[in-house]
UniProtKB/TrEMBL annotation:
InterPro entries: FeS-contain_CDGSH-typ (IPR018967), MitoNEET_CISD (IPR042216). GO terms for cellular component: cytoplasm. It comes from Kribbella qitaiheensis. GO terms for molecular function: 2 iron, 2 sulfur cluster binding; metal ion binding. This is CDGSH iron-sulfur domain-containing protein. Signal peptide: none annotated. It holds the Pfam family zf-CDGSH.
Length: 74
C-alpha cells in the first residue's frame, strides 16, 4: 500500500488503538481558529483522550493496553 498518492491534501491514517497520523498538506487549528504550528510535516492526533499534549498524541495510548474491535473496511 502506498503511503501517499494524494498531492492535493492530507492523508489521514488511523492506527488501531492509537493516533490518527496526518501526512501531506494540512493546517492545524485550535478551538478559537488560531493556527497551531506542530513543528513538523507529519503529526499524530490523539483519539484516545489520554494525551497531555492534545490534540497531539504523546504515546499515552500505549499505556491503556486495550484492543478495540477494528471497524470493517471496504
Ligand atoms: S492516541 Fe496516542 S495518546 Fe491518545
Amino acid at each position: 500500500m502506498s503511503e501517499s498518492t494524494n498531492t492535493e491534501g492530507a492523508v489521514i491514517r488511523a492506527y488501531q488503538d492509537g493516533p490518527l497520523l496526518v501526512r501531506g498538506a494540512f493546517e492545524l487549528r485550535d478551538e478559537t481558529g488560531a493556527v497551531i504550528d506542530p513543528g513538523r510535516a507529519t503529526i499524530a492526533l490523539c483519539r484516545c483522550g489520554r494525551s497531555a499534549l492534545k490534540p497531539l498524541c504523546d504515546g499515552s495510548h500505549a499505556l491503556a493496553g486495550k484492543r478495540r474491535k477494528r471497524p470493517t473496511t471496504k
